[in-house]
Predict the structure.
Amino acid sequence: MIAQAFKYEAPVTLAEAIGLLQKYGEEAKILSGGHSLIPMMKLRFASPEYVIDINNIPGLSHITEEDGIMKIGALTRETDIEHSALLKKHFPIFADASKLIADPQVRNRGTIGGNLAHGDAANDHPAVMLALNATVIATGSGGNRSIPIDEFFFGFYQTALRHDEILTEIRIPVPPPRTGSAYHKLERKVGDYATAGVAVQLTENDQGICTAAGIGLTNVNPVPLRATRSQEALTGKPLTDGTIALAAQYAAEDCSPSSDLRGSEEYKRAMVAVLVKRMIHRAMERMRK
Amino acid sequence: MEITVTVNNVEYHQDVEPRLLLVHLLRENLNLTGTHIGCDTTSCGACTVLLDGKSVKSCTILAVQANGKTVTTIEAVAGADGSLNPLQEGFHLHHGLHCGFCTPGMIMRATELLANNPDPTEEEIRWGISGNLCRCTGYNNIVSAILYAGAKIRGEALPSTEPVFV
């Protein structure tokens, strides 16, 4: 399959890339890892007139910790996220999630920024970012803009990014001790999009009371969904079978999956409940280690 | 667009359309037809090559993205005298191929796998080739072939070459 013809630009600075986005407007698409965009172009679901490849811009690929904030460059490949010792230390959830994204060759190319900017509720990082309360940095001609993750996803392939902005970094608060996180998705075969996926991050205090809970859901809602009622069911309470069962029940009720080849709506809701329970338990094990 | 790509240690200058895929550059412009097109949808891994040493699916990369980079394909795996490298030898001795269509992709993927992890477990190999599909032999003998190549590269005792039938 061959994409429709387009003009290719490979800027070497961020300013140059933003200038091209301003010049070409809505007709331009950014090429990052390209493993969502190029397949869509080959199938002619997308036919941008201009493709702006940001892979030659230095400074967009890094994983660093600064003043209690984990900073991940938008161009960081999934492979590097999967194997980062720094991320493993604070956020075991990343190794869980990255390992389940497509396959090794795709992870050699796919980027975390692209995974978010694509705005697809079937992608795995959006739920992780919701659980971790991430902030997305969008760079435009006027400089950087911080977008809380809860204000980032709008609808099918829609995000808060303006057409002349580039997602450049993800910032995540490093949680206090006694925090654990976990992600899993149910998939029909390895590398598939989720039938349902659940991301959890929990913190508890010395008295065994849950002081913070973040829960994000993958591919069971038109937009990536924060399970707000589930979080509230846990926060300020001990993590008991009762509170965990309630959190699982709320998530299953509050999501809005559609029946498709991956399963019926009823089945997906049931799987959300199962995964919420399991991921809470896995996060608790890690939290107490 | 003018690009310069080093493929199997040979530098090529090509004038290509931006929409040309890397796999088409290799197969049609450079006549390197060892890299196969299977699904053409990033699923099967038959088109796997190394781009600056990393395994990638060349049906999902534009040729212009390889500008200034190095590409390694199955044609560069054997020795100049035609001698098989450890992976090729492993696939041969362990019956790791039947029709052979997936083999170039399997070998290029396994090349990076062993470069990153010279002593993989069977489970690590199975995860490692999860982006490569084989529709005839099945995977047991492919895994055996990669285990064999790992042992050979490490200079250790070689596993039995009795075929595995499960």
